[in-house]
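Researcher: Let's do a round of design. I'm pasting the structure tokens now; please hold your answer until I've finished.
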């Protein structure tokens, strides 16, 4: 029969296997971490080389692509008064220290795109806003109090004025009439009501009751002054004649 290994040899062999597995595990983890750090552009942890962001503003798109070096370019196109195809902005700015492979956002001009501000005076606010947004403008609204005969939410003027040529995306401000509250309120018919109900209805209209006899809290209103339908201003008095 084959002799079995002594117990201490078996323990030593098992220990060797465990050590080998641990070493392999550490090596695999180190390789994975190294791979992550080599791909990362985080300036704190990346193993990539550091470089300075070049100045690309004013270059053509082709020139910028050639000068970007090891950076990853993200192109953004927008209307601008610069010639079409010219770089007008970049993020990060030139001179910034970054890791190779980091993204650099480069804004490229599509050229001018002028749109004429439409004539909006007299339109409702919602109609004017819809018209401006459809034309490609950004919007702002200023409310003012104006002639009470002017319907509320009517556009009084625009800034810039209608007919002005602006770059698409520019802000056009609408000046809009705000509703002017009516300072008068009609006196309701209070005859036959209890004093409590008459007081409640007057309070809802910001009118003040005066009772005769004075300070009556109970009873029925048998007469009033002024008559129903009379127009009074806020906090004016209505005289109530009250009987039990």
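Researcher: That's everything. Go ahead.
Model: Designed sequence:
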């Amino acid at each position: 029969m084959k002799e079995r290994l002594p117990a201490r040899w078996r323990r030593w062999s098992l220990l060797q296997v465990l050590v080998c597995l641990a070493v392999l595990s550490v090596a695999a983890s180190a390789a994975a971490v190294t791979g992550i750090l080599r791909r990362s552009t985080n300036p704190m942890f990346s193993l990539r080389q550091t470089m300075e962001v070049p100045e690309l503003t004013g270059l053509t798109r082709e020139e910028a692509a050639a000068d970007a070096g090891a950076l990853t370019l993200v192109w953004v196109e927008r209307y601008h008064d610069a010639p079409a195809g010219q770089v007008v902005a970049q993020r990060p700015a030139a001179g910034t220290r970054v890791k190779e492979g980091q993204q650099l956002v480069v804004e490229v001009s599509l050229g001018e795109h002028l749109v004429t501000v439409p004539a909006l005076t007299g339109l409702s606010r919602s109609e004017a806003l819809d018209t401006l947004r459809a034309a490609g403008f950004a919007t702002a609204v200023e409310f003012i109090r104006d002639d009470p005969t002017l319907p509320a939410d009517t556009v009084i003027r625009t800034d810039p004025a209608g007919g002005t040529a602006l770059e698409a995306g520019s802000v056009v401000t609408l000046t809009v009439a705000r509703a002017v509250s009516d300072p008068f309120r009609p006196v309701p018919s209070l005859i036959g009501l209890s004093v409590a109900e008459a007081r409640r209805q007057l309070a809802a209209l910001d009118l003040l009751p005066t009772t005769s006899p004075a300070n009556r809290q109970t009873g029925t209103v048998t007469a009033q002054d002024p008559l129903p339908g009379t127009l009074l201003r806020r906090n004016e008095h209505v005289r109530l004649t009250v009987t039990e």
